[in-house]
Amino acid sequence: MRLLCISDIHGHADALSAVLATAERRGYQRVLVAGDLCFPGPEPMATWRRLRQIKAVCVQGVGDRAIATVDLENLRARDDHERARLQRLHDVRAELGDAILTELAKLPRVTRVTVEGGLHIMLVHGCPVDPTEPMTHDMDDSTIAAMLGDEPADLVLCGASHVPFDRVVQRKLEGGEVFTRVVNVGSVGEAPTVSAQASGEPRFAHATFVHSTDGGIEVEQFVVPLGRAA
Fold first, then answer.
1. Per-residue model confidence as pLDDT tens digits over 122-133
2. Which end of the chain lies in a sparser environment, N or C, as judged by fewer CB atoms within 10 Å?
């Protein structure tokens, strides 16, 4: 089985379409999305509809929970940036409507997939111990091991930090020492290069193929150029 694994689309429907078009040339059976689907990008509804169209398996990210549950009446902006962010939150909620907001609120924080060979994959936005807390590329193995807790999955797929990485972490669990592969799939809509762009539009999107066979799991991370970078 080949899985297309992505995260942090943030309402950038064009970037999502570019990733899907690139991935379709290789083929895949399912799409897994590690949260932060619709906010704060320019096309939240188009993003949501595309994910529903392809029957993507999604978990809830911090942004998804915010737009679904935050009480805007009790929030006060401290500066122009926060005022713009709150206004965008209001606009995205209005565009999506109550029915979709309810679906976002009900998204699971984690989900698990069993693939060939009986191997177990966990999908989470942040980390198994706290799905709101990201695992980042610059953390040492002991820190990531602590954030994995006693999660028994063979492969943990995550997002949140927007920077992809792929590493194997050794841990001691009740049954003995285990090796867990941790793959941050990066960001479709807010890759780090976006910060250097005056337009605020992403130039690159990250994505990851996970190919499972009876012999194990292969991981292939790739970058999709967007807009002028394409």
1. 999 999 999 999
2. C
